[in-house]
Every structure is written in C-alpha cells, then in structure tokens.
Amino acid sequence: MKLRIATLAAAIALAGVAAPAIVSAQEKTVTVGGAPMYPSKTIVENAVNSKDHTTLVAAVKAAGLVDTLSGKGPFTVFAPTNAAFAKLPAGTVDTLVKPENKKTLTGILTYHVVAGKLNASDIAAQIKAGGGKATLKTVAGGSLTAMMEGDKLVLTDAKGGKSTVTIGDVNQSNGVIHVVDTVLMPS
C-alpha cells in the first residue's frame, strides 16, 4: 500500500500537480470540530477547518494575529470553542471584534498563547514539580495557573475563572493546540 501511494505521489509530482492530500493522508491526525488537524500545517491552517472554532478564527482575523500564529513559533495555544465564546455575556464577542476594540481583543487572544511547545505531559510535569500547580506565562504578559482536577488539565485565569482542556495535544507544525471549554480572561 505504501509503495502504491509513493508511486502515485511520484506520478502526480511528475505531472506537475501538488500532492499535499496524499502526504497529509499518511499523517497521524486528531479530529477537532469535525476536521482532521494535520501536524504538518500551522495553527491557523488547521483552525480554519474546525467548525467548533469559527468564532476564534474570526477573532484572530479581527485582531490581526493571522500572520503571527502562522509564523514559525513554536506556540502553545489554548483554543476556546464557539461554545466557550457563547458563555460570555451577550454582545461581548460582537463588541470585541470591532476595530476600536482591537487592542482589548488582542490582549484576550494572546492571553491564550504561551511561547514554546508544551504538550499536556510537559504541563503535567510542571504541575507535579510545582507541588500541584504550575504557572504558565502568556505572550500577553499575564499568567495562567495550571493544575490537575482528577485526570483533567484545568487552567485558572487572572480573574479566577476556570477552563478545562477538552482535547489536548493537537500538534501543529508551529506548536500545539489544547482545546478549552471557557475563554480565559486577563486581569
């Protein structure tokens, strides 16, 4: 089977046609929002395909962070779902994506990003070493407190709000995504 795929890919390449779908089909993926997340693609390239992250993608575009999150990284992104954004007071998202609120939106979104690639096991090791808690510095300049509640990784934001990682270790070419169920808020 691998030989047939390699032969087909070579034939397509000789014909001058790109074969990313064939290469991607061989990658180990995690499904998020009904779409496979390919480790060879960037955070943004994958996120745009998740039906559970349309609000996040729109917010990233409104904040002008597409190029940053498409960059080399690596980044650890705690990615709130549409349902997480829906927990915010009515009208909050509509207000945040207005051009005059770009600075506030950027602050909230970058509060969900940690420099470097931290898989769940890396965070769990920090929690164990920290006596049950770990502090994660965000690129916004704030901190998140990480802890385990049973077998769940939970983050506490600057305002005391809690968000649970529902899908962890979604590897990307420029980092890792951990899907979270609540929007994290900076101070």
UniProtKB/TrEMBL annotation:
A Pfam family reported for this protein in Swiss-Prot or TrEMBL: Fasciclin
For whether the record's keyword set contains Flavoprotein, the answer is: no
Database matches in InterPro entries: Adhesion/Biosynth-related, FAS1_dom_sf, FAS1_domain
Q: Where is the signal peptide?
A: 1-25
**Which Gene3D superfamilies is this protein grouped with?**
FAS1 domain (2.30.180.10)
Kindly list the GO CC terms recorded for this protein: extracellular space
User: Which superkingdom, per the lineage?
Assistant: Bacteria
Key word rRNA-binding present: no
Q: Which PROSITE patterns match?
A: FAS1
- Report keywords, A-Z: Signal
FAS1 domain ranges (all copies): 40-184
PANTHER family recorded for this chain? FI19380P1 (PTHR10900:SF77), PERIOSTIN-RELATED (PTHR10900)
The protein depicted here goes by the name: Fasciclin domain-containing protein
Q: Which organism is it from?
A: Salinarimonas soli
